[in-house]
Write a structure and sequence with these properties.
With about 80 residues, this protein is an alpha+beta fold. Helices cover about 25% and strands about 20% of the residues. The protein has helices spanning about 5-10, 20-35; strands at about 35-45, 45-55. A two-stranded antiparallel sheet has the order 1-2. The radius of gyration is 15 Å and the shape is globular. The two termini are about 15 Å apart. The relative contact order is 0.23.
Length: about 80
Amino acid sequence: MDVVSLLKSLLTHSATTPHEHNAALHITHLLQTQGWTVTLHDVAPQRQNILATRGEIVNVQVVLNTHIDTVPPWINQSEDQHNM
């Protein structure tokens, strides 16, 4: 998937706090289709942390951490010939 298609797919899901559930499921699906092993950790009802790994988790050297929730209001993506 190219970066523009990935961005469009991510922007179709509202991820405003505390409504990240559908976005988490979408990201989980995207990662799994690329060969990642994904574990969801419930932190509250309809809110999950995502742990994505490749291979065995032994002697982890690097962990990348971010968040998927965004600040309201959610605005569906749009684009014209110059902007997305």
